[in-house]
Amino acid sequence: MSRFMGARYSMFDAYTPGEQPQDRRYIKLNTNESPYPPSPKVRQALNADEVEALRLYPDPECGALRASMAAQLGLDENQLLCGNGSDELLSFAFMAWGSRGAAFADVTYGLYRVLADLHQVKVTNVPLRDGFALDDRDYLGLNRLIVIANPNAPTGMALKPRQLAYIAEQNPDGVVLVDEAYVDFGAESCLPLIGRYDNLCVVQTYSKSRSLAGARLGFAAGQAELIRDLKKIKNAINPYNVSRLTQRAGIAAMEDEDYYLLNARAIMQARDNTARALQAMGFEVLPSRANFLFARHAGIGGAALYMALKKRGVLVRHFGAERIKDYIRISVGSQEQMTAFLDAVREIMGGIKA
Ligand SMILES: *Cc1c(COP(=O)(O)O)cnc(C)c1O
To answer: Which of 26, 44, 158, 203 is the most buried (most CB within 10 A)?
Structure first.
């Protein structure tokens, strides 16, 4: 830290992203990316003409992209705002709606805490119940910004939309932000509830199920007034927040829903196969509706397993927080990648028993 940095920023811990190693090739199961490339339509859309047009600023409203999203999702265009990844929209949400504080689970996406600290939002920590279950009765009458990842990260466990509707009803003076980064892998979206609750905001990303993590694209959906709040902040921070190439890629991706449905189905299949194989080896695996598994084994700690896998060329994610330090989070890749992962685990666990 230089002596020029203000106290407000030198005091907080930044988010630590999962490793993106540039040295050797790993079987990369650590940041929940898709093992599949974007749709061929995306490749076609990013052509020489688009490169030519890069001298021009992009549409700050993402008009064409929002129009295709609105048509696909059955929403109004003014119920949508696009972001440079959903992380950016989460940051806007803490700025817009955090003045009364924010509440979220003790075990959830680590960025929420970082954003709260960054924007000086007071945090109410709501511990998950035993078995990492989120209980909607723990969120009654809080009336502040409530942030819930559904499915949750890194557990993969999901709530029903009616439970989130209940939380929205019970907090009329707070915004309920549902982060649906993983919803396409078998959970139910809250998007159909937006018309009914003026305090419900749903955020989704193109990074996971739509194979565009490198393009940085997400969207927030909510009633027009909520979206106006976020847009005001967007226009103050970065009016041209979504690049031309990303807007084109997003439109093309919207046009190939079937391709992504098939990929999501393959990933769910590989997830369930992998979970069964881990259970057969004595692992405890949480019930996942996401593109990752959260698992532990009584015979080896999370950090040790992470290291042993890394030595064998397989990257997974380990979190040091007390309540989850025995677990590893495994992103679900292709069936071939999962077979290689399981072979490595078998080798490691074999060595332990011997
Ligand atoms: C991956 C992830 C995001 C971030 O998505 P980007 O659109 O890539 O910024 C947001 N929330 C959760 C819970 C995630 O896991």
So the answer is: 203
